[in-house]
Amino acid sequence: MENSNFTDDFEPTSIELFAGAGGTAIGLHKAGFNPLLLNEIDKNASATLQDNNPEWNVVNQDVHTLSCKQYEGRVDLVQGGVPCQAFSSAGHRQGFNDSKGRGQLFWEYARIIGETRPKVIMMENVKGLRSHDNGRTVTIMLDQLNKLGYEVALQIMPAQYYDVPQVRERLIIIGVRSDVRTPILYPMPLKHVITLREALKGVPDSPCQHYSERKARLLEQIPEGGNWANLPLDQLKTYVKPETFKKLTSSRAGSSGGMLKRLSWDKPSPTIMCDPQMRLTERCHPNETRPLSVRESARIQTFPDDYKFEGSLASQYRQVGNAVPCNLAYHVGLALKQMLQISQNYNNSQTLTVDYDDRKFIEVEPIIIPENVSKQVYEEDFNPNSHDFKVFIKKLCENSRILGKIATKQAENDEK
Prior knowledge:
Elements lengths: L12 E5 L5 H9 L2 E6 L3 H10 L5 E2 L17 E4 L24 H12 L3 E7 L9 H12 L2 E9 L10 E9 L7 E3 L8 H4 L13 H7 L13 H5 L4 H8 L27 E2 L2 E2 L11 H7 L12 H10 L3 H24 L11 E3 L7 H6 L10 H13 L2 H14 L1
């Protein structure tokens, strides 16, 4: 039922690590959070964040040298967009052993949590984190958050059901400090989706990349919503390596649907990437033979039209592609704010009234890691095929799909 105690003037505080160009920060701020500090090491992304929000405390600094001890007792939320490249297929899934050190940045996120002791925490990453190293990586992360004194839950959130015109799934971990009296809440999926046509209506002009003559000639033959499969075989053969051609033509389908992909006006966009013309994840305009522009990509990521991105064209595309969609962060922010409001109401009355609008939020049970699994994952001779670990990971994967299942069921009901 609707929570009559929810107040719009309640303004919780936040710290954000790996803030990028500000997708999550914009969403959380819109939901009512007051950022005390935003940390980002990339100079262009940091400049974007600061120039668009001059009143915010943006710290362009290596997180390894960052201390937040002064915020202990003052911050309600610590959010970490821990760099995902180490856990994504595009980044070769090296995980904690990533050659660039990106997989190790989770430990800095955990360190800042330990320094500040926020009431709630949030971490976002690619869906692939859940299965990385057979589930060992995410289990270690969840276990470390438990050891810091937080109960945590994990959901794969389909962005297209949260006012984002884009098929994009993000892994969102939400946690609550064990002494804070509140359930873990996630936002309920919405019933509508936004098409590319709706999203790009009236979009401002902006720079975009250009195709080579060779690629442009091929894409000009592909209809709206089509891809490489619409090309004559003799022309496809000139574009890909022989082994790739053989693999593609053996089924004329398969996993390379993004190659030479022209978008559809009447569907949400595929996931916006850091480069709009990567070979396997093409993002060609529906009826013009060009990649999506920076402004079009930003619209799909739900950035405001007046939000300006700093740096080179390549850097701007990268900032947009790396961001969490602003609207997705906004809906998660509303759930986090509701959790904090419930906790505050308990502190004021000493009576836990779990009163929230169940049309907007859903309670998700915290993950319980069995003690033997907690020990196994740190062992050098760890066996991912052990019975107890396989049972735990199977349950974790099933439970992480609660929101996705609700969204799918809603969509099926709408089609009837």
